[in-house]
Write a structure and sequence with these properties.
The complex is a heterodimer of chains A (561) and B (349).
Chain A: H1 3-36, E1 38-39, E2 42-43, H2 46-52, H3 55-88, E3 89-90, H4 94-100, H5 111-120, H6 125-134, H7 145-170, H8 174-182, H9 187-216, H10 219-224, H11 231-240, H12 244-266, E4 286-287, H13 291-308, H14 310-320, H15 338-345, H16 350-378, H17 386-398, H18 401-411, H19 430-452, H20 457-464, H21 469-498, H22 503-506, H23 514-523, H24 527-556
Helix pairs in contact in A: 1-12, 1-16, 1-17, 1-18, 2-12, 3-7, 3-9, 4-13, 4-24, 5-14, 7-9, 7-21, 8-9, 9-12, 9-19, 11-12, 12-17, 14-24, 15-24, 16-19, 16-21, 16-23, 17-19, 18-19, 19-21, 20-21, 21-24, 23-24
Chain B: H1 3-19, E1 27-33, H2 37-50, E2 54-60, H3 63-72, E3 81-86, H4 87-95, E4 99-100, E5 122-134, E6 159-162, H5 168-185, H6 188-201, E7 202-206, H7 209-217, E8 223-227, H8 228-238, E9 242-245, E10 253-261, H9 268-277, H10 280-290, E11 293-294, H11 306-310, H12 320-338
The chains are: A mainly alpha (561), B alpha/beta (349).
């Protein structure tokens, strides 16, 4: 192995990758940690003592932990089987529904969560429908408390498992499975000992993202919590009440819990034993024999997806219902296109859509380049500081969006080259930067999972045959990484498109994103128009998913099929 | 090869150039305001017609958010004008050096409580806080008529409130109730007892006004507390079955204001805007179209909509100094010890 070349190319990557992470991720976090430990320029643990001696804070910590672990479990239970249904079997309607199954990861901000209320809340469509159907005098259930939060989390976060496992399944080497089966192992044994281990990096990645997203989740506990205390809400409430020190302590505790989970899971990933010895042949979908089986699988998969899309469909319904008329009925009584008309009549209508598209594109492009570089480093087991690198790339996910934005706003409020500070507050660039930082974990995880499954010998084989480093990257590595990279970038893109919690803190006159426009409509009670805006966003996201999904499928259909 | 990747990379390079704001040669004036899209665009259009060289850009956000933003932008202020917030937020911002003193031409036409210390802000609208209810469920004489009626057990699980930590309106109402009880007993304890009684009847605290009005219209709750202009506006625009009561014993009235943002190079146009939106004609328009009661007393009642004269507002005397000093502590106590302790909410799921 040409070691000198390896070192040099690695060094070329190490500097910018680490530099960027230290500057944009670690630095603002240390800033927060330092602030939480200092009072009147003196070191103190008083804020932490106050935190741990308050029963409501400890309760919030416990709730956050419980909800996050529960969300991981439930999301896996939905996402993994769904990935198998859509990516191991072929049946009519498979492609389009496989793409649609990714949609719930992004409910349009604010209105999306409100759609849950109109569906499962006390006066929701399903609740009232059941009540009338069963002739009850009281609603049969109401979406509230911890079960409600878990419900909403599982509903939206299963997509991490679904997408990551789907990408891994696409890269699964069918010959391994066949070998196992032909050697006499049972199907169960083959699944447990062959298929599942190969999927481990993807599952670990998804579990991490789900856990961290749940820890930092804001809207679900805020709207459905019914008074349940969780850390992310405590931060918000402390800040609103002007208790900045307590908000900082709560932020640090939340971050530490997320990091702890990361350290625990790191033991199960990246040990190299899950690497598929790819020979370039992608697994074929298993055509189902028998009409009944085909139909059964189609019905199962499609009805599951439809069920998961119910909140989106509810939003479409609201966008066509006349404001103020839907009060005691199960379904809206009067329909109108006026909500859309009001949007289109506004000459500032397209502005937020363009802004969001532009910023999401910029951020995602940067994310992809960064993730390829970081992923390339992360698979080097011998690289010193690899664990640190891995932790740093995940850190942004452990932080609530509000905190990321506040950190940026604080750190980059003045230009001071000595302190590595640049004036970004009030400029266009701060929002794309925030999106970039928030999505580092998403794309890096996805790309890393792709690298884990990749046999690096392919690269060295190409090199030894005389291919340049860049040629090997372009012709061998990138095409093999495509499913994972596309899955990650797609998620990052749609997340940035509808991002709300960071945006609201640092958007400027020239960079108002879609989410802020939806808030603006809601503040004016234009509920229908806010929903209509949400529908536009859903359509854009659906288009992105179909486009990416199609490109992937075309690339990975084995020749001759 | 990788088509989507190429598309992304390509678009990423092209878009910023294509979409960067074109130079219009106009002076931009940035306004931060919670007054809502409709009132803001209305004033924007009329101001720009009068001053064609100015491009007014506004950002619509809650008043607490405006303060947060001004703080974080202190080194690079983006806004020229802060239009709309309860007086105590302006006082706070003035103390922190975020505002520019300015004395408008009509300064003498407003009562003393509408003149900010150091000329940092002046009052624009008076916003009364009221008891609101679903008018399809309750007749006017059935609704709670006084604040203390809200504690009657017959409203158990029928009251839905906005989360008071996030809402200036709710904070004002809660603190006013504590101040009221303090006058009787001399300590906040009586006020806490009152709020405990309210919590016992409260079914839920919701995060924003839209959800609140939806829940009320959909009969998840019957009664709430909110401000008068919002209810009037919502009723007039969208036929929501909402009405309100002005308790005769007195209502808290929030003094909304306007201020110039401190900048190293303040734009002269900012003063024009300040004067324009607080001019007689603008205040009359805001009253007629957006149900805003002007703070200025020199506007002829015949020009204002008749409901203003018809509904005298029984303002509750509020000790602003005491309120500013203790509101944080009171709200923290409420959050820790009172919220959802009345076991009326069904937080068990």
């Amino acid at each position: 192995m040409p070691m000198s070349v390896t070192r040099k190319s690695a060094l070329l990557l190490i500097l910018p990758v680490f530099g960027l992470l230290l500057w944009l991720v670690l630095y603002p976090n240390l800033f927060v940690l330092w602030k939480s430990l200092v009072s009147d320029n003196r070191f103190t643990l008083a804020h932490y003592a106050a935190f741990f001696s308050s029963p409501s804070q400890v309760e919030a910590l416990g709730n956050s932990l419980f909800i996050s672990l529960g969300s991981v479990l439930l999301s896996a239970l939905i996402g993994v089987p769904l990935a198998f249904v859509f990516h191991r079997f072929d049946f009519p309607g498979r492609r389009i529904f496989a793409a649609l199954a990714s949609l719930p990861v992004l409910l349009p901000p604010l209105v999306g969560v409100i759609a849950f209320l109109f569906l499962y809340g006390e006066s929701g469509i399903l609740t009232r429908g059941l009540q009338v159907l069963l002739g009850l005098s009281e609603p049969p259930f109401s979406l509230r408390g911890i079960p409600a939060i878990l419900w909403v989390h599982a509903y939206t976060m299963y997509v991490y498992f679904y997408l990551f496992v789907s990408a891994a399944l696409k890269r699964l080497d069918e010959s391994l499975r066949e070998a196992s089966l032909s050697l006499g192992a049972s199907r169960t044994r083959t699944f447990l000992r062959v298929t599942l281990p190969v999927l481990t990096p993807a599952m670990v990645g998804a579990a991490l993202l789900t856990f961290m997203t749940s820890m930092a989740s804001f809207s679900a506990p805020y709207i459905f919590g019914g008074g349940v205390r969780v850390l992310s809400l405590q931060i918000y409430n402390s800040k609103l009440n002007g208790d900045l020190e307590m908000a900082l302590v709560e932020t640090v505790v939340l971050t530490l819990v997320s990091l702890l989970f990361l350290v625990l899971l790191q033991r199960y990933e990246a040990t190299g034993k899950y690497r598929a010895v790819g020979k370039g042949a992608s697994p074929s979908l298993r055509p189902l024999r028998g009409k009944g089986l085909r139909l059964g699988m189609a019905v199962l998969g499609i009805s599951a997806v439809l069920f998961l899309l119910l909140p989106h469909l509810t939003l479409v319904l609201i966008s066509f219902s006349q404001d103020g008329t839907w009060t005691t009925q199960i379904l809206p009584p009067r329909y109108t296109a006026a909500n859309y008309g009001r949007l289109l009549a506004d000459d500032r209508f397209l502005e937020p859509i363009f802004n969001s598209l532009k910023m999401a594109t910029l951020a995602t492009a940067a994310n992809l380049v960064f993730a390829l570089a970081a992923g390339w480093l992360l698979i080097r087991k011998k690289l010193r500081g690899r664990r640190l690198l891995s932790a740093l790339t995940l850190l942004p996910w452990a932080l609530p969006g509000t905190v990321v934005a506040l950190n940026l706003a604080t750190t980059f409020s003045v230009s001071d080259p000595l302190q590595a500070r640049v004036l970004l507050v009030g400029t266009f660039w701060i929002l794309p930067l925030a999106y970039f930082i928030r999505n580092i974990p998403l794309v890096v995880r996805a790309v890393q999972a792709g690298f884990e499954q990749l046999d690096p010998n392919l690269h060295w084989a190409a090199r030894s045959l005389g291919a340049s480093w860049f040629y090997s990257l372009r012709r061998i590595l990138l095409p093999l990484l495509l499913p994972a990279a596309a899955a990650g970038s797609m998620l990052a893109f749609v997340t940035a498109l509808g991002e709300f919690v960071s945006s609201i803190v640092i958007y400027t006159v020239d960079s108002r994103p879609i989410s802020v426009e939806i808030l603006s409509q809601l503040r004016q009670f234009n509920f229908g128009s806010a929903a209509a805006y949400g529908v536009f966003l859903i359509l854009m996201i659906a288009a992105a998913f179909l486009l990416f999904g199609r490109a992937l499928d075309e690339r990975h259909r084995p020749a001759g099929q | 090869m990788a088509r989507p990747l190429l598309v992304i990379a390509f678009a990423g390079c092209l878009l910023p150039a294509a979409c960067s704001p074109a130079g219009t040669g106009k002076v931009s004036l940035v306004v931060y305001s919670p007054h809502g899209k409709e009132l803001l665009s209305d004033h924007e259009v009329r101001f720009e017609a009068r001053f064609p060289g100015v491009d007014v850009k506004w950002l619509d956000m809650g008043s607490q958010d405006v303060l947060d933003r001004l703080r974080s932008e202190k080194n690079n202020p983006q806004a020229d004008i802060w239009w709309g917030a309860p007086s105590d937020l302006f006082e706070q911002a003035g103390e922190e050096g975020l505002l520019l003193p300015y004395r408008p031409g009509w300064a003498e036409a407003v009562p003393t409580e509408a003149r900010g210390s150091g000329n940092f802000w002046y009052g624009t609208y008076k916003t009364p806080e009221v008891i609101a209810y679903n008018s399809a469920l309750l007749k006017p004489d059935e609704a709670p008529g006084e604040w203390d009626d809200l504690l009657d057990p017959k409203w158990k699980r029928k009251i839905i409130l906005r989360d008071p930590l996030a809402s200036g309106t709710m904070r004002t109402i809660f603190c006013a109730m504590i101040l009221r009880e303090m006058e009787k007993t001399g300590s906040a304890e009586g006020g806490y007892r009152w709020l405990r009684g309210l919590d016992a009847n409260t079914k839920d605290y919701v995060p924003n006004l839209t959800i609140l009005s939806q829940k009320l219209a959909r009969r998840e709750g019957w009664v709430t507390l909110w401000n008068m202009p919002d209810i009037e506006l919502q009723r007039a625009r969208y036929d929501y079955p909402l009405d309100y009561v002005l308790p005769a014993g007195g209502v808290p009235v929030v003094m909304d204001g306007i201020a110039l943002v401190a900048k190293s190079e303040p734009r002269p146009e900012a003063r024009e805007f300040y004067e324009f939106v607080t001019s007689g004609p603008s205040l009359v328009r805001a009253a007629r179209e957006f149900f805003r009661i002007p703070a200025r007393t020199d506007i002829s009642p015949s020009e204002l909509p008749s409901w203003i004269a018809r509904t005298p507002i029984p303002a509750m005397p509020l000790d602003r100094g005491l309120l500013r000093k203790h509101s944080r502590e009171w709200m923290r106590y409420w959050d820790e010890h009172i919220r959802h302790k009345g076991d009326s909410g069904d937080s068990g799921g």
